[in-house]
Amino acid sequence: MSTYFTIGEISKFFNISIKTLRYYDEIGLLKPAYINQENKYRYYSIEQFMKIDLIKYFKITGMSLDVIKDILNSECSIELVMNNIKIQSSKLEEKINELTIVKNYLDNLENNISENIRYGLNEVFIKYNEERIFMNYDIVSNNTEELDLNLRDIILDLENRQNEVYVQMGSTVQYKVLKDENKIVYKGIKAFCKDEKNQNILPEGEYVTLIFEGSLKESINHYKKILDYIKVNNIEVVGDFNEIWLMPKIDENLEEKSLVKIEILKK
Q: Residue limits of the HTH merR-type domain (predicted)?
């Protein structure tokens, strides 16, 4: 019996849980070399050590257990191994590209938030912005409920047609309607990414800006604060407001606490 090892010993030798070893037995990937018929204890032989090493090696590469089983059943055919290595390498390359996109998005998000919140929340300030490129979806939303519904369609379009998932978004809010009628009308939705057929530019320049944390349903008060600032300081502005959603957030009561930037270009 000295050439056999219990399932517990194998678990320690290879850092594989007993539950996993039992599952490998169940699916036929790694059968015990010997089972005591009286107590049903599983025993593994030292000759199986290489097989267990191969299972761990192939699993690290991301191969499925079914693929690993096929390779082992083929007596580790070089052709089959090489083919699956190429497949896994391609999959890993795709994953690396995906993770790179995610990391770039997170880095840009961190920089964007850090750059903006240093001015403080709920305070009006003047900020210079470089030229920014965006895609525009010419969809009118008369309230935040309509905006939410329209946004679902746009996000799906970005994911499916544009292959964009991690995109900063925002909207255009009509300056004249807000000033004259005291209401918010979203006349377009922006996605800050490049598209040859749908490319728009926010010009460089100084923007009257305010950043707040809260719900879009309460944003009218923040717009009024900017309008008052513009009036008191005799500032001439150009075009409409840009409402940029820096980061969506909710609190423990599921109440929206998003970080939102409102800005309008000085003349």
A: 4-74
Does residue 86 share a domain with residue 70? no
- Other beta carbons within 10 angstroms of residue 119's beta carbon come to 15
Q: What is the pLDDT averaged over residues 166-171?
A: 86
What does DSSP assign to residue 217? Answer: G
Same domain for 107 and 161, yes or no, is no
| Same structural domain, 262 and 142 | yes
195, 164 in Cβ contact below 8 A? Answer: no
Q: Where residue 224 falls among pLDDT bands split at 50, 70, 90?
A: very high
- Cβ atoms of 10 and 21 closer than 8 Å: yes
**Tokens 């994911």 correspond to what residue?**
159
Q: Using 50, 70 and 90 to split pLDDT, how confident is the model at 254?
A: low
Question: How far is C-alpha 101 from the geometric centre of its chain's CA atoms?
Answer: 9
Instruction: Kindly state the DSSP code that residue 196 receives in the 8-state scheme.
Output: T
Question: Are the C-beta atoms of residues 192 and 168 closer than 8 Å to each other?
Answer: yes
Kindly state whether residues 113 and 93 are assigned to the same domain.
yes
Contact by Cβ (8 Å): 258, 214: yes
CA-based nearest residue to 31, from 76, 73, 77: 73
